[in-house]
Amino acid sequence: MQKKPNSTEEYQSLFEAYEKDPAQADLDFLGRVPYKDRRGFLKGAGLAALGGLLGASIPFHRNFPSGLIPVALADEAGPLAGKDGLTLLNDRPVNAETPPHLLDDAITPTNRHFIRNNGIPPEQVDPDSWKLTIDGLVDTPLELTIADLKSKFEVVTMALTIECGGNGRAFFNPPAKGNQWTYGAVACSNWTGVRLKDVLEAAGVKDEAIYTAHEGADMHLSMAEGKLPISRGMPIEKALTDDILIAFEMNGEALHPMNGAPLRLVVPGWPGSCSQKWLTRIYLRDIVHDGPKMTGTSYRVPNHPVEPGEKVDKKDFDIIERMPVKSLITAPATNASVAEGDIEVRGHAWSGDRAISAVDISIDFGATWQKAELDAPVNSGAWQNWRAAVKLPVKGYYEIWARATDDQGEAQPHAINWNPKGYLNNSMHRVAVRYA
Ligand SMILES: Nc1nc2c(c(=O)[nH]1)N[C@H]1C(S)=C(S)[C@@H](COP(=O)(O)O)O[C@H]1N2
Ligand SMILES: [Mo]
Question: Which ligand is nearest the CA of 276, by number?
């Protein structure tokens, strides 16, 4: 039995031993290197030496950008362990999205839930000793274990949609800086936990409280002590609604480490950034929270229409609240070739905290539309599933377009509503299909 190394230095020295004499070294240790520590190893000669672990040499190792890890390793033991088919957009911090055709399930399985990290997740979490602090402008500050949450409050399970505010950013022109999400920074899993509202009411919300502030146990990319990568909040009226959970289970099991284990907030319909992962503290404030990624232009859009590329003054940005009406086509996969003209088109639709009233499908570039069959949400906060039997009249190339309309009559636009940071792209999803 090899001793498990337990510090970065120890990993480093084992790795150096491996570089000196691969035949004699403890090869197995590499598989256990936490991904945050791997970064230092994977440069130049270090990367070349990893050939042993990958089962092949790396002819172009000199070109490998430092800071990335080989995808083959990432999938096996890194942040994407337990995920299936996600596209890694960045490994520091970890950001991975799900191709639309892998989001076909009515309820998103954990292995298909996207990952959006702003910092470095905590490495060792102990659910039994995890504590959540509720303080700030409350009558009685609380410190709760997960066992306390389960025993003192009603435990509920709900399907809840989380979408990153930057989903669809890849399609902005001029481009917006940040993760180039295409379609897959959205999911609707089953979450089990207690209502945020019940916990806040148990602590007693003071009259002066106007905003929540959330903290998690992840570290800033700089690893600086006490510096949070992200701390967002929401107006107290929103926090006291029924659909927001402090969740300790995802699809009937412990949360995935990258989705916030052992405890997180789930705020459906608002930007995913409200749903603090690795949740350690919620405090109530008498000002709009000003934590990291609450200020400047983070998660904000201009409060008036702007031209693509237009410079917008900082004071003209508003904090994003609800996410806009949107839909996703999950079948067929784009670029699919079908042998029959009769096909089923499927997908999901959602609109912040509203319900969807219709999803329309077009196969003729928007000239005519047919109504999809639309399910009611399984509960409020869940996306709605839809399907349509579609007939492709003759062989050839088609695009399937989907357009959702919500119960306030708002429908998805054809073109992107451009904004400087690339948020809220709810333009229609188009997939290419060849009837051959
Ligand atoms: N502690 C913490 N919570 C966080 C984040 C983070 O980086 N750290 N990212 C937020 C953002 S921007 C999004 S979109 C969601 C994504 O949740 P997921 O990674 O479980 O899909 O988590 C949010 N909660
Ligand atoms: Mo996000």
Answer: 1
**Which ligand is nearest the CA of 117, by number?**
1
Which one of 245, 249, 273, 300 would you pick to mutate in the ligand 1 pocket, going by the greatest count of ligand atoms within 8 A of its CB?
273
pTM of model > 0.70: yes
The helix (H) or strand (E) run that includes residue 265 is: strand 264-266
Q: What is the distance between the alpha carbons of residues 339 and 316, in angstroms, rounded to a whole number?
A: 52
Region of residue 87 (phi > 0: left; psi between -120 and 50: alpha; otherwise: beta): beta
Cα–ligand 2 centroid distance for 320 (angstroms): 11
Structural domains in the chain, CATH included, are 8-74 (no CATH), 92-319 (3.90.420.10), 325-435 (2.60.40.650)
- Asked whether the predicted pLDDT for residue 39 surpasses 50, the reply is no
CA-atom Rg of the chain in angstroms: 23
Helix H or strand E segment including 328: strand 326-331
pLDDT-based confidence at residue 45 (cuts at 50, 70, 90): very low
